[in-house]
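Dig into what follows:

_____
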Amino acid sequence: MLDSQYCRTYSTGMSEAARKFQRDLNSGLVALVLLGVLAESEEDLYGYDIAKRLQQARAGEPLFKEGTIYPVLRSLAASGWLSSRIVPSYSGPPRRYYRITDEGREVLAEWRAAWRDTREFVDQFTGSSELMDPTPEDRAS
């Protein structure tokens, strides 16, 4: 799913094994991230809007290229987790705007829980837990 040139640029200084791991990891996270972005938005978003939000979140260095998100958006819409509408544009081709559906919100809740469980499990063995921000439960104790 990731552009090979981008992976080489993004992963400068990483071993080939580390670059492959990053590509594999990213390919599984794109749908989760896209559902999350759309769930947080109060308005419909089109692909370029989403790509810019992802870029801003990483100070200009998104984990995946803009072109990567379009096939995933189409797949999420085909699954019924996003609705879309096409709006004419005065500055180019028509834009397809996306909104998360109620079913998409349910899937996102399940995926967030799976991600949290996976992250916690991996952190037990990689020593990464001290790098994470404390959860609200951790702060309360």
Summary: DSSP finds six helices and three strands in the chain. The chain has one domain: 4-126.
